[in-house]
Amino acid sequence: MPSSAHDPAGKAREPGPDDTEELSATTSPGAARHDPGVQHDLDAQHDAAAARGSGHRPPAALPTMTARHWWVPVLAGVGGYVGTVVGIVIALVLSILGLALQGDSDGGSTTDRLNDKISNATGLDTDTSGLRWILSVPFQLAAMAALVPLRLILSFGGEGASAGITVPQYFALACGILTAWLIARKLSTRMRVETRGVQWLMAAVSGLTWAALALVVTALTVLRLDVPFFASDIRVRLTALGGGLFPVLFLVGLLSVAAALNVRSTQVSPGRIVVGAERSTPGVLQVLRPIAVQFAVFGTVAGLGLLIYAFVEGGAPAGFSALFWLPIAVGWLFVLSLLSALTAGGAATSLTGLTGRSDAFYLWSEGTVPVWAVVLCILLALVSAVCAAITWAHVRPLDKRVARTPLAWTVLPVTYFLLGLLALWLLRVGGYASGGMVGSSNAVFSLRPAGWTCLVFLVWGVIIELLARLVVPAFMHTLPRRVTRGLRGSERSRGRAAVVASAAAMGGAGLAGAGLAGVGTRATPAPEAPAATSSAQHPSAEPTATTAPQDATAAYSGPHAGSGDETRVLPSYDDPGATTRMPAQRAPMDPATKKRIRLIAIIVGTLILLAVLATVVFSVLSRTVFGPDNQAEDLLRSVTDGNATHAAEIANPNVSSGQRALLTDDVYGAAQNRISSYEIKDTTIDGDRATVNATVTQDGVTTPVALPMVSDSRDGLFKSWRVDESAGVPLYQALTVEVPAGVGELDVNGKKVSVDTQGQPHTVEYTVLPGDYAVGVSSSSKYVTYGGNQVAEIRAGSPSSAPVMSFQPSFTPALEEDLTKQLNATLDRCAQSTEFEPEGCPFGYSIYGDDEDYRNPRWSIQRYPTYSVSSYGNQATFTTDRSGEVRLDYQYNEEYDDEPADWTDRDTTSSVSGYGTVSVSGDELTINAND
Q1: Exposed, middle or buried, 565 (CB in 10 Å: 0-12/13-18/19+)?
Q2: What is the rounded CA–CA span in Å between residue 13 and residue 35?
Q3: Which of 327, 457, 545, 689 lies deepest, with the highest CB count within 10 Å?
Q4: Interior angle at CA 406, CA 401 and CA 407, nearest 5
């Protein structure tokens, strides 16, 4: 049984003011108070009397417990759960505040936006402003602090589906632990905790209260809703009840209150279990302190950095919701910075696309974390490891006993190994979906530290152990006093650790004797025994008093004692000489050795610093001067400046020279609405391939573009990157123009672009950069036109289908004018004829009778006809809109016989019309008239 200040029945060995002691004739009162053997006999007599009086002997701890010993832990357990719920409420209020700060006047209320987010995630129409949500959600989220999943259960038409997510809420759990600890510490101020049994019994009561209250409240506040769905309702349950809720919270409450009551214990000497553990594994009772210091140093800096990053990148919602995700994010970053990895399982493997399609994510995975951030995280991990080594060098015991115990080398590494195993559970985020929500199969995902994290932590434990033994002693006492005090702990905790180490150094016989002869009694301190203390390893830093040493194998009284009258007792916690009597276990280091160690440390540190600087410089140069984003920026700058020729040199469009006709500075430089600005967002590198993600602004619209890069050569030590044209360059797009027959030149943005002249219409495809292209077809004839310019709007990120421009010929008014002129000229020529039927003319006069009776014909145009022209392919047809009129004056012989002719003047009129076709060749017209 552990040592205590009580007799076997639980009666305190320090009598009260009204108690009397029955002493033998040969025993003085002082001897009865200080001699363990005598006191043991007296207690035995008391126990016998109590047993005779009651017939029942209660457990050792119970007789010393009052009502206060019961209701204090109950209140601490209740306070622990209330503190957890309050932590969740604080996190929820801050998250809602973040949403409110992000909102605008057109975005609706904060509750509406929250409802929209929940509806988008679940597909259910929810109203989080309802009383049931307010009374349920905080308690269900508080249960997630016990690492149980929050489950959504749906039932509809006899079928069901469920989904759950596990995200440990460590902030809320920390609030509960702190509340329980403060309540237990405050309410137990004037309380005596006589034995360790009483302490742990009270802690168990607190743990049971906390776990039972959480279980009952979580069950009572399950959210139950009926959500309308078509003509029926879906029954919805939101609950965090789980098998781990009770045991986890019981353990948390147990340890929290036990820690709070530790200072209330009146046990004056370390117990057998404590001493045995310290003897077999030296330093095991102090091993958690360096780990706590390491995580505190790393977590404080990393948590602040993550919080700033969340506000910068995610805005107010991400920053104000940090209480939900920041603790586990810091834990993940701690694992990554110690050079381990996170692994994704199930559906979560899709989250690792940035790591080369692997299910393992390392801090240095290319393209995911900036180089400067990787370097800072690793440096922070090294600094925290050094702080842990300094702490371990201060608190671990060092003496001949420790030197002879091989397990002393394994205490810290094994603890780190176990911490790595524990991290697999504590830092796991997971979820599942089953039933109708995912069809006939189940979906599961998880994100947690890699399975080999425990081995990585083991290596770090070995490194810290070596630093604490070989390096830290050279400079540990040169640190500022406040830093040293903060790392090694309070004087009280160090003093109690020294007492335990001293007790462990007394040896097995001494321990057994102490345990059997009233362990923990306030006896006169025995003469010096070899013991251990962490601070005594450097006497120059903290001077200690010394007394004459005593053999550690002294005899003791009790059933297993050898012959002799000497009694050996364990050192007392409140004995001021317990720590001062302990000798130095390590001789002071001579100045030469100390100087040599410092020199070696400086050289090694300098080499490490140079290696880190070289790595940083190489990484910075690889990412900047020789990085893929540098080439991408050069390309985007050329496009922005209208320098299409240089852009084509950087990113080869891989097309024929004819298709590059528009990739000239003259044509593209004159384009309207080109890319006006750009911004490089990030770069993802996967071996010799990379993707530069950027945004471009064109005509007031910002569009994301991803530029593929490849490295197939080196520029000295650095990779040489170029645009991977085989993967396609998103800035290049196609423009198709249908060229009419006989056209050998296009007008693009006011610049002449030659094309092949063909007798038939044909299609030409061009590769172009984003911008507006005004395209027109030049005509070689004044009679033909192909219309005005057509504008093709080429936009970055637009669909890959190429816009097509088609040009159809049409005839100009000049054709009708010149056609009319030519036809009228023909009429005028015909009017000059002295024939009654002019050849090739659209008019004539038919003679009836003897031709000799008609003479002197004279033609005159009274009115010219008007014509209309219509297109038919590359030809034109014309018809008469309004007929013209022609007049014929002639003489007619009215004499019918041979008498002298009697000529009289006559005239007649006739209409003139016509139709036909017109062929155009350049500026020449060929008219084919059909009269």
Answers
A1: exposed
A2: 12
A3: 457
A4: 95
State the Cα torsion 19-21-22-27 to the nearest 10°.
-170
Query: Per the structure block, which two tokens stand in for 882?
Result: 């309004």
48: Cα separation from own chain's centroid: 69
CA distance to 164, 224, 230, 776, per residue, from 227 (Å)? 19, 10, 10, 61
**b/e per residue, 445-463, with b = 16+ CB within 10 A?**
bbbbbbeebbebbbbbbbb
* Residues 206 and 79 sit within 8 Å (Cβ to Cβ): no
Q: What is the pLDDT of residue 103?
A: 54
d(Cα 292, Cα 791) in Å, to the nearest integer? 69
Structure tokens at 182: 């403060």
Q: What is the pLDDT of residue 520?
A: 39
| C-alpha to C-alpha distances, 275 to 267, 279, 403, 462, 511, nearest whole angstrom | 14, 6, 17, 25, 8
Question: What is the per-residue pLDDT for 550?
Answer: 37
The whole-angstrom separation of Cα 585 and Cα 22 is: 45
* 728 Rama sector, left if φ>0, alpha if ψ -120 to 50, beta otherwise: left
SS3 573: coil
The SS3 of residue 760 is: coil
Q: Could you give the residue ranges of the DSSP H alpha helices within 554-590?
A: 577-580
The Cα–Cα gap between 402 and 536 comes to: 14
Other CB atoms within 10 Å distance of the CB of residue 806: 14
18: tokens are 């009204």
Tell me which H or E stretch contains 327: helix 322-337
pLDDT for res 438:
44
> Radius of gyration of the chain from Cα atoms?
50
Strands 341-346 and 360-362, sheet pairing = antiparallel
CB 250 within 8 A of CB 215: no
- Cα-flanking dihedrals φ and ψ of residue 163, to 5°? -150, 150
pLDDT at residue 511, as a whole number: 43
First to last CA, the chain: 136
How does strand 804-806 pair with strand 733-739? parallel
Q: Do 400 and 585 contact (CB within 8 A), yes or no? A: yes
Residue reference for tokens 């469920």 = 162
Report whether 761 contacts 741 (CB < 8 A): yes
